[in-house]
């Protein structure tokens, strides 16, 4: 994705002002997440490529406190839940009402900007569980690979040592 396309995506987000002021990176620095992992068509970009504490709406008390969200995901767009986790902590995400064109993954980013995929699949309904292999921020991303918008209801269950870091798009 080029800088012009990324800028257009940012402009379309309802919380673009909060995102642009919270993030230290420019649209040209955005990190692709993931770039077609294991042949799956999941390819989405974080609004700013930054999961640092306080970035991408993480400072929004309403966004971090909620453990359930409802999304309307447009074609080619994504929704994402990000978690701060200690090694061995558990997160479970139940999602429903999505179309069959939902591709999802569980991922994390290393300090060099690389992305590690921990699990992935395709389904508009299901449960994804993650046990953190290390301390850090982990994400579950749902992308609409279809041609029509799809709803998606997400409910998060947090184990001890896990908390909501942020939601994308932020409300």
Q: Could you characterize what this model shows?
A:
The chain has 171 residues and is mainly beta. It is built from three helices and eleven strands. A five-stranded antiparallel β-sheet has the order 7-6-9-4-11. A hairpin with a 5-residue loop joins strand 6 (102-109) and strand 7 (115-122). The radius of gyration is 15 Å and the shape is globular.
Our estimate of the beta-strand percent is: 35-45%
- The averaged pLDDT comes out at 73
User: Tell me about the biggest sheet?
Assistant: 5 strands, antiparallel
Low-confidence runs of at least 5 consecutive residues: 1-64
Using the alpha-carbon principal axes, give the shape. globular
Count of alpha/pi helices = 3
Which strand order spans the largest sheet, edge to edge or round the barrel? 7-6-9-4-11
Helix content: 10-25%
Q: Encode the helix/strand succession as letters.
A: HHEEHEEEEEEEEE
Q: Which characteristics define this entry?
A:
171 residues; four-stranded antiparallel β-sheet; mainly beta; 11 strands
What's a concise summary of this model?
It contains three helices and eleven strands, in the order ααββαβββββββββ. It has 171 residues and is mainly β.
What's the helix and strand layout?
Elements lengths: L2 H10 L3 H7 L9 E2 L10 E2 L15 H5 L2 E6 L4 E8 L4 E7 L5 E8 L5 E8 L3 E6 L4 E9 L5 E9 L3 E7 L3
Antiparallel strand pairs: 1-2, 3-10, 4-9, 4-11, 5-8, 5-10, 6-7, 6-9
